[in-house]
Design a protein that fits this description.
single chain, 616 residues, alpha+beta, Alpha-D-Glucose-1,6-Bisphosphate, Chain A, domain 4, Rossmann fold, 2 domains, 16-stranded antiparallel sheet, seven-stranded mixed sheet, 30% strand
């Protein structure tokens, strides 16, 4: 087996290890107040201050994993868009994509990774504004890649908004995402940067085209080059609550550095104090042991404290000596070890009532062991994508450990209503009890849903699939049902029932208490049957439903009637019509219609109110 084949064989687990390793933290209450995808006019203004050749990155709240990347391309918009609608160009842009077979229903694809070849199918769809790859089955499904082209003078800005099911790409991503939710956005941003840069390089004229496979050695920047001014200017235009980054490329196509930043409520002084403590850095993946020694003089850093790092990663070595300069900004240079020459920098700039904080790095991935070196040789653009993912994870890792921002407990009440506990998978048999047909009339419910063949339905809190299987029959083989549940045991029960029934158009999706895990604008109908009252974070989940519903989609709530004392269900698991309207209206949904033919339950149909909420 040659080196290139070995690199392809091991890059999925290596990618996951580099990005998530031993993380034991969450993004927690990092709040996202604006869409990751900015308005076109704001994007054009931002690129007026963006360094030439850079990729702009915006990363949504984990694990919803919506990632936006953009890059200027010296190609007219019409030519660039025409390239995007031709399937063969995706294979040309990404050499590891060894098979792209077009049929009438979907495009089957295969990514060449001998030990765990990734396969799947996507549907290419285009509108006047967007060219989309909708991932329908296989690795990374459900998911979508939405490309747009915006004119800037005679040239273009190429953008990609990407949402994928990173968890189910293969067995190791399942284990890591289940362990740490930040794996999802980190893997997604890595892939998005690689895909965007690959398509931009393919589209660029020959005289301006970047080198696809650079032949020069990496040249890390001097610490003084890691300035935050460009990023401050960009976020001043695009918004500063979404983590926003830059991937800067050196002449010749190698990475210069990756940078991520956003606004936090802390003062710049308190952040500097926290980050100057070497022991705070144990939150960084791989930095398991840190010892300090007296100050030394280091070129580019000045008077520096020496940090000795010990790691325990398989395949990757983070062992090394870092010279860290303290002051208003922090700069670190790796002076010994396999990562020799790597640099990072922290900046905190007073902004509003808090600070704008940014983290920049050139990690010298090519030196962190045999496998990192070889998989970058196999796909050079991974140097850029992985560095952005690492910068994001390291920044969140550090800032989530600072006091007093511990994870807040889940709310106990919402709009005056006590939130019910989630039914355990151990009670799944109740969902398929023989008396349910007579008690709830589920066949009547599904007739009233009016699902059409070929549409996409999303079953939230799907449990063992009682309603998902019925919905799969309604939408037919050309349609699809995404079955979301937070309990992996429930999803396993669902898979077993679907397999026994010979149903192939159901995609199980592992959600969380705050995120569905669904792509944006995919659900023609979102169904919650006796589920909404158990959502531990209703506000966040209503925002998720807004994001994932299609432009003409409907949200359907079925809840046991609190107004009827004859309904033999505990009061905690009932809701009144007035309470449903209060919470759904506050969450950005308006009542479209309702039906009273179910014996025990409210049946209410809602539309998203796009005037008051941004679902992009």
């Amino acid at each position: 087996m040659n080196c290139m084949t070995a690199a392809r064989r091991f890059w999925p687990p290596l990618l996951s290890l580099l990005l998530t390793g031993g993380l034991a933290f969450g993004q927690g209450n990092l709040t996202v107040a604006e869409s990751v995808a900015p308005e076109p006019n704001a994007l054009q203004r931002a690129f007026a201050v963006t360094p030439v050749g850079s990729v702009v990155v915006r990363i949504g709240d984990a694990p919803g994993n919506e990632v936006f990347v953009a890059m200027r391309v010296d190609t007219p918009p019409g030519r660039l868009r025409q390239m995007l609608v031709e399937v063969e160009n995706y294979r040309r842009a990404v050499p590891s994509l060894v098979r792209v077979d077009v049929s009438t229903k979907a495009v089957d694809w295969e990514l060449e990774i001998p030990a765990a070849n990734l396969q799947g199918a996507f549907r290419l769809a285009s509108t006047a504004e967007t060219v989309s790859l909708v991932l329908q089955r296989g690795a990374f499904a459900p998911g979508r890649l939405d490309f747009q082209v915006h004119p800037i003078g005679k040239h273009s800005i190429l953008t990609l908004k990407m949402t994928v099911n990173a968890r189910d790409a293969n067995w190791i991503t399942r284990r890591l995402v289940d362990r740490e939710q930040l794996a999802t956005p980190a893997i997604t941003v890595t892939a998005a940067v690689v895909v965007l840069r690959a398509m931009a390089i393919l589209a660029a004229p020959d005289e301006t085209r970047s080198v696809r496979r650079p032949f020069i050695e990496p040249q890390p920047p001097l610490p003084a080059w890691l300035q935050t001014a460009d990023l401050v200017d960009i976020t001043g235009i695009l918004g500063n609550t979404v983590p926003t980054g830059l991937v800067q490329v050196a002449p010749g196509g190698r990475l210069l550095f990756a940078q991520i930043g956003w606004q936090v409520p802390d003062s710049a002084e308190s952040l500097s104090t926290f980050l100057s403590d070497a022991q705070s850095w144990k939150a960084v993946p791989g930095w398991k042991r840190i010892t300090t020694s007296p100050k030394v003089e280091t070129v580019g850093v000045g008077a520096a404290q020496r940090w000795s790092i010990g790691s325990s990663f398989p395949f990757v070595s983070f062992d090394g000596i870092w010279d860290v300069g303290h002051g208003k900004t922090l700069r670190g240079v790796c002076s010994e070890g396999e990562g020799k020459g790597a640099v990072w920098g922290w900046d905190a700039v007073p902004q509003g009532d808090g600070s704008f904080v940014s983290f920049s790095m050139h990690p010298r991935l090519d030196r962190l062991g045999y496998l990192p070196r070889k998989f970058i040789e196999a796909e050079p653009l991974l140097e850029h994508g992985l560095s952005m993912g690492l910068a994001y994870v390291d920044a969140i890792a550090l800032l989530r450990t600072r006091p007093p921002f511990a994870t807040q407990p889940a709310p106990t009440h919402h709009h005056g209503r006590a939130i019910a506990p989630t039914m355990s998978h151990e009670g799944a048999g109740w969902l398929t009890r023989p008396t349910r047909q007579a008690e709830e009339h589920p066949d009547t419910l599904h007739a009233l849903l009016g699902l059409k063949k070929g549409t996409t339905a999303c079953d939230i809190g799907a449990g063992n699939g009682y309603h998902s299987l019925k919905m799969a029959s309604s939408v037919g083989p050309k349609g699809r049902v995404y079955s979301v549940d937070i309990q992996p045991e429930m999803l396993e029960l669902l898979k077993t029932r679907a397999t026994r029934a010979g149903i192939l158009n159901i995609t199980p999706v592992r959600g969380t208490e705050k995120h569905t895990g669904l792509p944006a604008r995919i659900c023609d109908l979102t169904l919650l049957v006796d589920v909404y009252h158990e959502l531990s974070h209703p506000t966040e989940m209503l925002r998720e439903f807004h994001r994932s519903i299609s432009p003409q989609g409907r949200l359907v709530l079925v809840e046991f009637r609190a107004e009827d004392p004859k309904v033999p269900i505990k009061a905690l698991h009932k809701m009144s019509r007035a309470q449903i309207l209060k919470e759904l209206n506050a969450g950005g949904f308006v009542l479209e219609s309702e039906d009273h033919r179910l014996p025990w339950q409210h049946l209410m149909f809602f539309k998203a109110d796009r005037r008051t909420h941004n679902s992009q």
